[in-house]
Amino acid sequence: MIRADVCNPCSEGYAPLSIPGAGGWTPAPAPPLNLSLPFAREFTYQNLRVFPNVYLAPMEGVTDPSFRRLCKRLAGGRMGMLVSEFVSIEGLTRFNPKTEEKTRFYPEELPFTVQIFGAEPERMAWAAQRVEEGGASAVEINCGCPVPKVVKKGGGSGLLKDLPLLAQICTAVRQAVSIPCSIKVRLGWSDDHVTVFETVKIAQDCGMGLIVIHGRTRAQGYKGWANWDLIGEAKSRASIPVVGNGDISTYQGAVDRLQRYGVDGVIAGRGAMHNPWMFAQIADLYEGKTPRSPTLREHRDVFRLFEQLLREEMDHEGRILGKLKQFSARCMKSLRGVAGARLELLRSESVTQYLDIADAFFEGLERDGGGEWDPGAVRELNGKNALEPEAGAAHW
Q1: Among this protein's residues, is 331 annotated catalytic?
Q2: Tens digits of residue pLDDT in 53-70
């Protein structure tokens, strides 16, 4: 249940808007991709260059070092930014080993941003200093997480109900560090409490160099469509770079948003779980090459690459198997007619059995044909029942 009483109401001159239907927006069908139309391919904030400007969104429980490195390896190292899972200031300022582990990154992940969440300006500033001391390229304030246990303490999207506190946090963090600072927000708390234009002002006034906007309200969670019209309107009012987030699972969809809404960049979250090759396709496009679909052999090999990266992070077979199952449950949805094999993988009882099933399945596809890849047709990114396909979908 969504609670609207967990944070203080906005005050001190901030004026959230009531926009009926903000969370019920449906996009117009995307036109065919036209690369002759202009769009941003990079942006710079506070002296940090991000190129390419389509990168992986942070997702708790997903974008650990193994998955981040998988995406960057598939892209041949050509990713403009990587971002940590969100990190609690409670754990970070208490030197909790598990929390500190979430701030760790490999040199190949640079430039790297650590995203922190909390509701106390002084401790947020201290946490940001610890992030800088750890060698991260940038720090980001999470103002978008809708999880109740985070929101009830005033953090995440709870800050959208207390904009004066958000302004204090942004100021404290900016004054505490010399590395680039950004915030990630949602459109607002609900259709009756849309704050995105106010958070743009706060970000600019308090020294943030970048604002990342997820085009849903907190009340929506991850359901419905991300409202890119409001993201585009926020961009038109901003004097700092704006990155948009929501419903991106193909390189065509990313370019469409860059062109139609004029944003400086795009991040892909759940869509990247279905299509981790998206960043390679974007990089190829920006280099003047024709983006290509992964072969069946590359699909087969990606499971072994992911297993290798997981083993560099952990040695518990159960954890490795769980991560592999999480990955295949999403990644294989982009292949048509593979539901049976996906179910077999989810039922596997060991890593060896899992990889044997994957090898046998893809060898059969290579031999007999089939398994057409179409990530744009995947619309159930998180239980969503949408009416329009992603730009770039070949089938619907």
Answers
A1: no
A2: 999 999 998 999 999 999
